[in-house]
Amino acid sequence: MECKWVSGVIVDMSRLDGCRFLIQLKDSSFIEPINLSEEYRLNQKSVCFQYKLKPEVPSICMKGKIAEVLNIK
After folding, report:
1. pTM of structure
2. pLDDT tens per residue, range 7-65
3. Dihedral through CA 52, CA 66, CA 69, CA 50, nearest 10?
4. φ and ψ at 39, to 5 degrees?
5. Rounded CA separation 45/8 (Å)
6. How far apart (Å, rounded) are the C-alpha atoms in residues 61 and 73?
7. How far does CA 20 lie from the centroid of its chain?
8. Does the pLDDT value for residue 1 go beyond 70?
9. Largest CA distance in the chain
């Protein structure tokens, strides 16, 4: 299982069709979390998280890579 620890910023992208809260990484790319906890759905909140990419899950938003958040703080 491939896992990564990274830092990012929660971004509210709900103005785009099919998007909700995404995590923007330092390189300006995005992760589309499929299971972001309600407590982290805060625009511009800095987080450190561990995730697993889920390429088999289709994206409606199509703004970033789909991932399951394994740990977040």
Report:
1. 0.90
2. 999 999 999 999 999 999 999 999 999 999 999 999 999 999 999 999 999 999 999 99
3. 50
4. -65, -15
5. 8
6. 24
7. 10
8. no
9. 33
Give the model's confidence band at 3: pLDDT under 50 very low, under 70 low, under 90 confident, else very high. Answer: low
Q: Which pLDDT value is given to residue 4? A: 65
Q: Which domains does the chain have, with CATH numbers?
A: 4-72 (2.40.50.500)
Q: Tell me the two tokens of residue 3.
A: 């896992």
The DSSP line for the chain is: ---EEEEEEEEE-TTSTT--EEEEETTS-EEEESS--GGG--TT-EEEEEEEE-TTS--SS-SSEEEEEEEE-
Residue 44 structure tokens: 């511009």
